[in-house]
Design brief:
This protein is an alpha/beta fold. The chain has one domain: Rossmann fold (3-Layer(aba) Sandwich), CATH 3.40.50.150. It is built from 7 helices and 8 strands; from the N terminus they run ααββαβαβαβαβαββ. Strands 1, 2, 3, 4, 5, 6, 7 and 8 form an 8-stranded mixed β-sheet that branches.
Length: 206
């Protein structure tokens, strides 16, 4: 199953099967909220399905190391975005300028603590003052359903955390972090936490 999900067709089929049809719209309109003509960086963009829900005139840049995902994104969206077949690193982002919104959708639970901490600092560095990082990941919580916990235990990512554990990593780089717990974004029992991390207007760290 994990190998199949590395292929864009099966990834999109699986996502359409379990996610609410308006999942990307919710993530964009409720949390990312990019304004017209703003610059958006998508770390671990996959086949870039969220681009369909973004305003058409945003300047979109997506990174993913999966060649098939990037080829699919380029074929589907063409000039609507710039797609890099690479892991996002500080070096890779150095010549791309600053962004108003950075997204890491379903990324953190694939990263260990050191890698996740680096993602937060990399995003902070890539953001304009006042810009925001939005993350979206499966999350353990006390009292969640057995089905949700079982599904999280068998997720492709091996670093699913509690809300407090995600927060601790985010707060290493951002002084303003707002968590949002959601259990209504899939067609199956599941708990997600969305973090909205804001870089302060002066551009300093935590």
């Amino acid at each position: 199953m994990k190998a199949l999900l590395e292929l864009p067709f099966f990834y999109n089929l699986w996502r359409r099967g379990i996610a609410r049809s308006d999942l990307n719209t919710v993530l964009v309109s409720t949390y990312a909220r990019p304004a017209n003509s703003q610059r958006v960086l998508d770390i671990g963009c996959g086949p870039a399905p969220i681009l369909e829900s973004l305003p058409r005139d945003v300047e979109y840049v997506g990174f993913d190391p999966n060649s098939a995902y990037i080829d699919s994104a380029r074929a589907r969206f063409g000039a609507r975005g710039r797609f890099f077949r690479s892991t996002a690193t500080r070096e890779a982002l150095a010549d791309l300028g600053k962004f108003d919104v950075v997204m890491a959708i379903g990324v953190l639970h694939h990263l260990d603590d050191d890698e996740a901490g680096e993602l937060f600092w990399m995003a902070h560095e890539a953001l304009e003052p006042g810009g925001r990082l939005i993350t979206f990941d499966g999350c353990y919580r006390d009292g969640q359903s057995r089905v949700a916990r079982m599904l999280l235990d068998h997720d492709r990512g091996r670093h699913v955390r509690t809300q407090d554990e995600y927060l601790a990593l985010a707060e290493g780089a951002f002084s303003s972090v707002s968590p949002h717990l959601r259990e209504d974004l899939l067609r199956i029992p599941y708990t997600h936490v969305i973090l909205e991390c804001r870089k302060d207007e002066m551009g300093s760290g935590s």
